[in-house]
Each structure stands twice: as structure tokens, then as C-alpha cells.
Amino acid sequence: MFLSKSTFKKGIVIPSLIFIIGICLLSVFLPTLTVHILDTVKEFIFINLNWVYVWGVTLFVIFLVYLMFSKFGNIKLGSNDSKPEYSFFSWISMLFAAGMGIGLMYFSVAEPMQHYSTEVFATNHYINRAKNAQLYTFFHWGIHAWAIYGVVGLALSYFAYRYRLPLSLRSCFYPLLKNRINGKWGNAIDVFALCSTFFGITTTLGFGVVQVNAGLQTLGVVPESSFTYQIIIVGVLTLLSIISATSGVDKGVKILSKINIITVVVLLLFVLLLGPTVYLIGSFTEGIGNYINNFFSLTFDTHVYDEATLPWFYSWTILYWAWWISWSPYVGLFIAKISKGRTIREFIAAVLIIPTLFNFIWMSVFGNSAIWFDINIAKGALSALADNPDALMFKFLDYMPLSGLVNYLVILIIIIFFVTSADSGIFVMNSIATKNAIKSPKWQMVFWGALLAILALMLLNTGGLQALQTMTLITALPFSIIMLLFCVSLVKALMIDSSYYERDFSVSTVPWSGEFWKDRLKQIVSFKSRESVDQFIETTVGIAFEELQAEFKQNDIEAKIKLLDNPKRMEIEIRYDLVNNFIYGVKNQVKVVSDYVMEEENLPDLPDKKTYFPKSYFGDAREGYDVQYFTKNELISDVLKHYERFLEIISEEKNEMFISSNANKKMS
After folding, report:
1. 494 with 534, same domain?
2. Which of 32, 132, 377, 416 could form a disulfide bond with 260, CB atoms 3.0-4.6 angstroms apart?
3. What GO MF annotations does this protein's record show (predicted)?
């Protein structure tokens, strides 16, 4: 009875669990072999297919910038009158905590220090090495990373809130797959997303636990960094994550995200004001300029002309692009969950610019402070610890005032960052596994949290965490292709969306009055066959043209009528020697009807997906329109309207070249 209340979808959950548990068991019992195999695959991808990541991430940036400045930017992620569910501060806090989170604490000192001390840049002067360290850190944590998250988040929120489809990756393929997203293809996409999310969260949990353990050891709270203490840490953090996830996004996740952003800003200001302030402000300013100046060269740089830097390129830039891509299903789903009611322009601007700017400030303050201390005070002691990122943050803070108190604050921030990442991850995984069920039993959240904790501890104990991380990076390659298809699907949908709201009333409805409303209602709700449209052309159109021809003759104007086949069409033509001929015609046009209309009970049955209508055409490149509702007199009036336009144009001297009779020669 307890399990019968489950909202899990078997087609998603069962294959996902088999794959997740299978990979984790291989990593636990055969860690060396699994790591060797997966590393071989990863190395092949990074060396031979790194251009896929480079081009993919570049296209994501270009795509989002284009949408932000295009007419599509005004489209809302929801109905046109929808309002955002969260305040701007709450929204930014949650997407930031889920998007980068614990990585900022783990890499804010470690990455700049590793770039600064790497042998790749060892021949450079220490000033150039410091500049490179900041530049590449900005590059890896800047607009490119958030563009990856932004593409997935935008596609998900658009199709979920605008098209009212489930908040699921499968929905992003709707313009390409239509109703097939509800079948095996859709399940396969969601299985991929669920596994990718689980692997990413598990890997983060492992790194977070190790760093918290190292921090507690530094403070003397625990005597050592051992598996026993890691079990306790995992248990406490997972319990907090489950409590937060079961309380919902509106409570636990939002509250923790707000607390986190406030504590992070406090820590940031502490280091900025009590550290080398002038140096930090100056280096940040110069770093922004350096980033802007090198933006395009960094974006397209594959290091192919400098083989000595290729291993560094694979281990940093390509690894980062793969890492962000592998995390994008989880982060994108969570961002989409909290972004209803925003416009596309607002969404892209906030996701690309605000977190990027904060990352730059954060990385400058911590990374540049560490480098400054290493050069001026520590005399290389910090750069010597570059390969030990678990303890590097705490060693760096030893050079700051009140280091003991600040270390406690850092551990608190890491814990909250971890909990906000894990609780949103649990929430997202349950959402994928249930196809975004409105309400799920709380035991399902407990299930995902427990599974995360158990498998993470098993991997930590056996050293299999590296294998899982490598597996996560490998999955980024196929998902980068999926993301490119998201872009194609999104453009297709946005063009339809824009056309829908920009389309005016049909031209054929302009002359309507209420006189023939009953007949016109019958015409509107019925589908036309080829034969009925042919009959309309031969009768209504034919009679209208004959009356026009007779009246033209009374005014000494010769008009000819042509009736042609394949398709059936009739036109009235007035020939001229020096200017283009005037032509007004009506042809039988076919139109394919959508599946939804075919299945609609309120409309008449249609034997196939085709319907027909009479469409006007002219002796130039202008697009015609549907004239099926015109009466004979309305059709005559429409021809005269176009004839008056024709005479007005040819009477203007500036149009002489355009209306040359050369066009008649081509037509004859």
C-alpha cells in the first residue's frame, strides 16, 4: 500500500536505476579497471572530439545573445499575462546556488593557484602568470558556462510554460518529434537526464564531504580526515537535504539559498576589505578588460599550434565544458522550475550576466588574494599546495585576520551550498522520474537522498569516485548534440509563436458585415475538397471575372480571362506595352492540417490530412491570400482594389525601372 502511492514512471525509473547502480557497482568492485576503461574513452573524446565542445559552447553563447536582442526577447515564459513566481532576489539566489554552488568554495583559490603554478606557464614572468591565472579562471566560470545552463533552462521553461508541456527534457523536442515525445524516445531522453543528474550530484557530494572533513580537521574539530567521519558528514548533510527537499522549493530551497547568498557576500567583503584591497580592485578591473579583449580568441582557441599546452587544454577547458554540459540537465531543470513568468530577454540577461559578474568578483577576490599572499608573505607556501584543493582554502585563510572564526563560516557556507545543491538535485530527480507529477509522496524524496548517500559513501570508501566523475564527463558528448537540437527546436517554436501573435485577421474577413453570418459560419467550420474549390473557381470566380471583363470593355480596356489546370486556376489579365501586365488570379491551394485538428471532436471529420482553399495570386512576387469566403461582389471589389494600386504605382515616375515591360517578355 505504501509503495502503491508511488508516482514513479517505470519506463524512466527502472532503466535509470539499472544503469546508475550498475556503473556504481563496477566503480566500487572494479575501480582500477573501470577508471582505466572510462579514462581511455574520455581521453579519446577530449583529444579527437574536443572541437565538438568548443563549437557547441560557442554556438550556445551566440544563440542566447541573438535571442536576447531579437524580437523573440519579449516573449514570456508562460502566458502573456503571467507574472514571476519569485522575487528577483529569490530567483537569482536559487539559480546561483544550484548553478555553481559548492564549486565556488572548492575552486575559488585552487584553480587560480593551479593556473599560476602550472609548468605550462612556468616560463612566463610571475606577473603574466598571475594575469593568465585570472583570465582562464574567468573564461571557465564566465558567460560560456552559464550559456550552457541557459540553453537547457530556457528550452525547458519555454516549452513547459508556453506550450503547457511537462517540465521534462523530452518536451524540448516537441517541434521535432511531436507526440512521439510521449513514447520510447521521450523515455530515453529522461533516462539520460536522470542518470546525468544523479552522477553529477553524487560526485559533488563526494568532493564536498572531503572538503568539509579537511576543514573540520584544520579547525581541530575532528582529529583526522577518515572514512568514519565522512560517513557522519554524509549522513548529516543528506538528512538536511532531504528535509529541505520535502519542504518544497518555496520553503527549504528558497530560504537556504537566501541565507547562502548573504553569508557568501559577508565572506567576500571580509576578504576584500581586510585583504590587499587596492590590489584586488585593480586586478579585477584589469581582469575584466583582459577578458573582454581576449573573449573571441579564448572562445575559439584549440591550442593546436602550441602542443605543449594541449594536455592543460584537455584537463581544464575541455573538462570544464564537459562538466558544465553534464550538469546542465539538472541545473537547467531547476532554473526552469523557478523561472515561470520571466521574459526570454530577462531570463537570458539575468542568467548570463549576473552570476558571471559575481563569479568574476568572487574569483578575483579569493584567487588574486591567494596569489598576492603567495608572492609577498607565504613565499610559495600556497602554490606548493596547489594540488591539494581540499585544504587550500583553509590554508589561505590562515593568512587573514580572525582565521579561526572565518574558517567556521567557510564550513557553514560549504554545508549550505551542498544542501542547496543536493536538495534541488533530489527535487529535480524526482521530477524527472515522475514526468513532473504535481504531487509526489515524500518517501520518494527520501529514496533519492538515501540512494545518493549510500552510493557516494561506497565510492568514497573504494576510491571509485573518479570513475563516476569520468562517466559524467563522457555523457557530456552526446548531450552536447542534444542541446544543439534544443536550439533548433526552440527556434522553430519561437518562429511559430511570433507568427501566431503577429498574424492579423485574414484579408478575406475585411469586407465582412453581419449580413451573411450563417453561411460564413458553415464555411469556417468545414473542410474543403479539391472538387469544391475547383467549383468555386469555375462559378463564383468565373462569374466575377466575366462581369469585370464586360465592364472593363465598356471603358475601352481589354481584359482577358484564362482558365488553367494542374492546379485549377483562373486569372484576369490586362496587357500593357511599356509596363508590366496587371494580373489577378485565383488558384486551388492545398494545406496540411495538424494532428490536433484531425483529432478534434468539435470539427468535422477529414478523410486525410489535406484540405483545399482558393488562394489569390498576382503578376508579381507578392504573397496571395485565402478568398474562399468572398462573395462575387466582394471578389470584384478586391480585384478593383489591386487594379487601383497597380495604376497608382505605374503613374509614379520613380517606379519606371521597376515596372519595365521586360517582365512581360519573361512571362510570354
Report:
1. no
2. 416
3. transmembrane transporter activity
Rounded to whole angstroms, the maximal C-alpha distance in the chain is 110
Instruction: Give this prediction's pTM.
Output: 0.76
238: its cell numbers: 543528506
Task: Identify the residue with better confidence: 411 or 1.
Answer: 411
In terms of residue numbers, what domain contains 272? 3-164+197-498
Choice between 126 and 495, residue whose per-residue pLDDT is larger: 495
Report the number of distinct structural domains present in the chain: 2
pLDDT at 313: 92
Residue holding cell 478593383? 640
Which helix (H) or strand (E) segment holds residue 22: the answer is helix 10-29
DSSP codes, 123-162:
TS-HHHHHHHHHHHHHHHHSHHHHHHHHHHHHHHHHHHHT
Residue 407 in any domain: the answer is yes
One domain for residues 134 and 276? yes
Instruction: Give 317-339 pLDDT, tens digit per residue.
Output: 998 998 899 888 888 888 888 88
In this predicted structure, the answer to whether residue 92 has a pLDDT above a threshold of 90 is no
pLDDT digits (tens, 9 = 90+) for 144-192: 999 999 999 999 999 988 888 888 888 888 888 877 888 888 888 888 8
| 509 belongs to a structural domain | no
**Spatial separation of the C-alpha atoms in residues 77 and 594, rounded to whole Å:** 24
- Whose cell is 546508475? That residue is 20
Sheet-wide strand order for 569-574: 559-564, 569-574, 582-592, 610-618
Give the distance, in angstroms, between the CA of residue 633 and the centroid of all CA atoms in the same chain.
52
Separation CA 378–CA 396 (nearest Å): 9
pLDDT tens per residue across span 117-137: 888 776 777 788 889 999 999
Quick check: 239 and 365 in contact, CB under 8 A? no
Residue at 257 is within a domain: yes
**Residue 414 three-state SS:** helix
Q: Is the dihedral of CA 634, 635, 637, 641 positive or negative?
A: positive
CB 165 within 8 A of CB 78: no
Sequence-ordered list of residues with C-beta below 8 angstroms from that of 524, at least 6 positions apart, any chain: 629
Length of the chain: 668
When computed from its CA atoms, the radius of gyration of the chain, rounded to whole angstroms, is 33
